[in-house]
Fold these 3 entries.
Entry 1:
Amino acid sequence: ILNVEQSPQSLHVQEGDSTNFTCSFPSSNFYALHWYRWETAKSPEALFVMTLNGDEKKKGRISATLNTKEGYSYLYIKGSQPEDSATYLCAFMGTYKYIFGTGTRLKVLA
Amino acid sequence: NAGVTQTPKFQVLKTGQSMTLQCAQDMNHNSMYWYRQDPGMGLRLIYYSASEGTTDKGEVPNGYNVSRLNKREFSLRLESAAPSQTSVYFCAWGSGQPQHFGDGTRLSIL
């Protein structure tokens, strides 16, 4: 059984704080790791596609890193804003497998 | 939304009733998926279709059937709805890349 785990499950931060969360995935048969942003009452939207060990992607105040050898990815948000409040999902793409994590639910307090 | 039309958006059923959730994508893509989303469980794959005329079971297929009669449409059927099938259902398309999701169907079984 392949597990994709995300931590923490949820967190609250103050506006302006920086934060980060983790996605752990199997280190074998790795093809890609995807990060999604999922706002309440909407559908998930892709943030990053990460394929190479050591990859670092950035979009505005949000960035992500990838370590395929140890099987983890970090998502960072710098200077959190209320509009960053959402669930952040990672998905592991392996050979013939595509598995979502359970998500990290972020609430940014104004 | 992202080239995926999912209907209906909301539905309430009585236990034992049947219904079909419809999904259509206008991106001419081969792979389509049905997920359910439950609190604390992330997205769980019900069924997927790698191409027109083919379907395969995902992680939680029991109680569901699917149909992929053409490339554009992938429907999910509940033959005899049970309260355990109360959930939010998402259709998606894509492979080898992040998936693109419909807006979801919020289904309640009483």
Entry 2:
Amino acid sequence: EPEVTQTPSHQVTQMGQEVILRCVPISNHLYFYWYRQILGQKVEFLVSFYNNEISEKSEIFDDQFSVERPDGSNFTLKIRSTKLEDSAMYFCASSEALAGLKPQHFGDGTRLSIL
Amino acid sequence: DQQVKQNSPSLSVQEGRISILNCDYTNSMFDYFLWYKKYPAEGPTFLISISSIKDKNEDGRFTVFLNKSAKHLSLHIVPSQPGDSAVYFCAARPNNNAGNMLTFGGGTRLMVKP
């Protein structure tokens, strides 16, 4: 069964450094998403992306965050200057074109640890 | 954000019996609801969904019920199996949401005892 893949599984970064989290969505999916889950808290929406532009973003997704689809297969989340509070599990997800009633499928996440 | 709540942090059930996981929501604009299962060190895995135009959807051992007037949905697993032990999240999406943003509940940890 096709799946969303994320790399790396664990990223350790010094505070203030830039970090890029990578995702390969399911190949025929056209909607892409990033979510995060801080330890002990809920899964929170960050951003959705369709047709090479952001469809929606949450308040968490401030100017320090950006997303990109650099080629036909990868979808990336960049955090420009990481803060301690950015430590979390980051999940990438994707869904089919007719996303109205199509579920989002999630990758296994990247654990981001900011020191 | 308390728009989606799962009031039971954990549930323990005997193998073969029914597991009932509950979820409440407050936003009347939600029109699509999903249940995800999550094992440790893995991402959420989609289980089953329901549109607000229905009150029940069934897929094998899993059935989701939606009570719009009560703003309540539930997931029934019959019969429960030890492999069902995981954290279950409900999620919801509003009908005015072009970005398909999902709002998640806090999760219920299900333990199915052999």
Entry 3:
Amino acid sequence: LAKTTQPISMDSYEGQEVNITCSHNNIATNDYITWYQQFPSQGPRFIIQGYKTKVTNEVASLFIPADRKSSTLSLPRVSLSDTAVYYCLVGLGWGTNAGKSTFGDGTTLTVKP
Amino acid sequence: EPEVTQTPSHQVTQMGQEVILRCVPISNHLYFYWYRQILGQKVEFLVSFYNNEISEKSEIFDDQFSVERPDGSNFTLKIRSTKLEDSAMYFCASSEGWGLLTDTQYFGPGTRLTVL
């Protein structure tokens, strides 16, 4: 399974764009990259998933370079409510390796007023 | 939007007692999962379930744990004899498929289990 590395924490201010980068140097050919968000005392929530290039939805964008050894989650114009832990997961669809994969430490994003 | 529900939201039990945590996955989902998160720690995978049997389980999921889909809507996690270290938030999740694009997992709000 591809190991992922993310910054432990990031601070931002309301209205700013936040970019969280995840390194996954040993990503396999069929692996997808998925990001989840977790608020305190809540279950993780799917944000976005991609394989290559750029994916955008109503919440975020995911940028994946050609070599796919990293990915960047971009949150436009964050608000205080975006304060959460953000997890990057890499696998053949996350559930397929569910028995061996787990959430890493994630990145704790703190948005300040 | 459909969602995964869990009951109870908080369960307090005495060490050695059996507990059953309940989940109602999203109705058209076929794959079900349990995770736990000890306070301040990572979310840990426990077990996945498909077609009425366990697909994968982690080292945490020992003989004290069992899962069941007793009817067409509920998915339960039973802990036979609870220990203090079982105190955690337990999350249920479900997904539509096991494939590349359809295995996004939807998590419930969790059950906080406190073992005294």
